Amino acid sequence: MDAIIPEILCMICSYLNIEDVRRFRLCCRAFADAGACFAFREVVFYLHQGDFDMLRHISLHPIASKNVHSLVYIGHTLEMPRKSLEEFRSYYSTIRSTEKIIAQHRNEAPPPKMGDLQLERLYKNYEIIMDQQERILNNDEDISCIKEVVSRFSSLREITMSSEFWFWDGQSKTPFEGCLVKPGFEIEPQGCRHLDSLLSAVFETDIKLERLTAGIFSWRFFQKPPAEFKLSLPYYANLTCLELCIDTGFYEDENTGGLSEPILGTEVPECRRLMETGLLRDFIKSLTQLQTLYVIFSWHSNEHGYPARLENIMEPKHRWEHLDSLTLGNITCERQDLMSMLRRHKSTLKELCLRDIRLRSTSWRSLLPKIRKTMDLDLACICGELYGQDEDSPFDEYWNLAVPEAMGDELRDEVSDYLVNDRIRRCPLTADNMDL
């Protein structure tokens, strides 16, 4: 096997999926070295001792370390403070009830019930992992480990910080499998520690990123001195893709007759004040190579309004020469400002998603025909809560088109088709199909 030309082995690996590459590497040393060029191109990890050990091992491998192109950091940890043994048993009881319901729905027998000894062994594993997690956080071992390993990933071009499974479909298996408790707790402010540790390591290593994806993370991440952001701009100069989902806060109100009710957008005013400084807008403006721009705020608020305006995100009159995909969510604007921006990118923009957008005093029924007439889109999605104002009468407009990841929506699909299909002549949004 060692006599096979390495280039041929690498070509073979290029046609295999990741799981097959990993099996391929078990054959012999030559296969292992060839597979190392492909097996670790994307590395997914949690804030977990075992995953940090894995990162160090990859970073010290002479071949694998030079072929890591993408890091995906999942922002979920075990809930703190830790559970007592009784709370652990209660947690399992909830899992057991769910297993029974699922089994009944599938007309199957539920999995065997765990005994006390098995639960106690799992609880010991849980305590070990909690000890490690607390030590890592108290000693900033996560930050130092990421800084150490990133310095050896010379081909790193993409980083993703995923929380609540934004930008990451997730895996059925996590490094927490042996302790029963599922990770889902976010360190406050949400996502900021994970994202900061990745970016600070990248900056110290002088890596020029091409793709930055982060979500969901708190707006508080941007509460940094403007001078600090300016110093970081050169490290983003090669970005072709920027995807951000910014959290604007919510909490569960449990004072409504025993039923919890989510209160959304609780930090919208603070976020809006920060966005009005132009800090995010100036950063995005500096990205001259940008092809994909995705900026969504998690919530708006009935009480506090929206976290940003279009001009807080995209500099008026500025044009990104290569922009071909644009997604904006939970912002306000006027149709004239939005159309002005779209016209500037008419020659390049092929994909457009507008999600949970409020037109302050203009109409969606006037905007959509203009988008259709002006743009040559391959893909369009207008979804979420759409607010507007009829321009010929004092009536508000409102449609609630389900976001694609939530459910199907016939009207949403009709609007999307209208914007990309010349044969559809009539705008699907009408006074008759508005939501009350």
Largest sheet: 10 strands, mixed
What structural class do you assign from the helix and strand content?
Answer: alpha/beta
Radius of gyration: 25 Å
> Strand order of the main beta sheet, please?
1-2-3-4-5-8-9-11-13-14
Helical run tally: 15
The H/E string reads HHHEHEHHHEHEHEEEHHEHEEHEEHEEH
| Integer average pLDDT | 91
**Low-pLDDT regions:** none
Count of distinct strands? 14
The percent of residues in helical segments reads 25-40%
| General shape | globular
SSE blueprint and pairings:
Elements: H1 6-14, H2 18-24, H3 29-39, E1 42-46, H4 49-60, E2 70-74, H5 85-105, H6 116-138, H7 141-150, E3 158-162, H8 192-205, E4 211-218, H9 226-232, E5 241-247, E6 250-256, E7 259-264, H10 268-275, H11 279-285, E8 292-297, H12 310-313, E9 325-329, E10 332-333, H13 335-344, E11 351-355, E12 358-359, H14 364-374, E13 379-389, E14 396-401, H15 410-420
Parallel strand pairs: 1-2, 2-3, 3-4, 4-5, 5-8, 8-9, 9-11, 10-12, 11-13
Antiparallel strand pairs: 6-7, 13-14
Helix pairs in contact: 1-3, 2-3, 4-7, 7-8, 13-14, 14-15
